[in-house]
Design a protein that fits this description.
CATH topology of one domain: Nucleotide Exchange Factor Grpe, Chain A, domain 2
Strand order of the largest sheet: 1-4-5
Helix content: 55-70%
Distance between the termini: 133 Å
Strand content: 15-25%
CATH class of one domain: Mainly Beta
Length: 183
């Protein structure tokens, strides 16, 4: 077998690995610096993520509070409106109770007429108006024709008789008028 001769320079290279060279040290330092930069970047991003999560949780809590307050406010508005309406109707109920105490038919009739007028006043305060009177023209959007009469002396679609008045508040129909019309 042939003997391999190793020079003293080769022995130095063999004893100290290539990582000890200045280039290797620079690579190590660069990798170390990159790892440090990445660790700093990861910490920064984790901080941003925690901040965004906190913002999200706060916004979700604010939205839940808003929904709860809105629901309570709607319920309060409904209860307030209902209370106001009942308060307007109480004098009518009081007058009905007083009318029930009379035995004289004429006094009861006069009392009922006065009560009907007070109902109209209450409805006016509440913005409710009645419709459907004899002589008006039939409108299927607000009237419900339950009977028809053949009469040439009356106009086509003229309301001849009103069985129930209709009521509306603004454009909202509360109750359709029940009428008899002419054909």
């Amino acid at each position: 077998m042939e003997e391999i001769k190793v020079s003293p320079e080769d022995e130095v290279k063999a004893e100290s690995p290539e990582t000890d060279s200045p280039e290797a040290e620079a690579k190590k330092a660069k990798k170390k610096s990159e790892k440090k930069d990445l660790a700093v970047e990861v910490a920064r991003l984790e901080g941003e993520l925690a901040e965004q999560q906190d913002k999200y949780l706060r916004m979700a809590a604010e939205y839940d509070n808003f929904r709860r307050r809105s629901r309570e406010e709607r319920e309060g508005v409904y209860e307030g409106a209902l209370g106001d309406t009942v308060a307007e109707l109480l004098p009518i109920i009081d007058n009905l109770d007083r009318a029930a105490l009379y035995d004289d038919g004429e006094k009861v009739k006069d009392g009922l007429v006065m009560i009907a007028k007070s109902v109209e006043q209450v409805f006016a305060k509440l913005g409710v108006e009645s419709f459907g009177a004899v002589g008006e023209t039939f409108d299927p959007n607000i009237h419900n024709a339950v009977l028809h009469v053949e009469d040439d002396s009356l106009g086509e679609g003229e309301i001849v008789e009103v069985f129930q008045k209709g009521y509306r508040k603004g454009k909202h129909i509360i109750r359709f008028a029940m009428v008899k019309t002419a054909n």
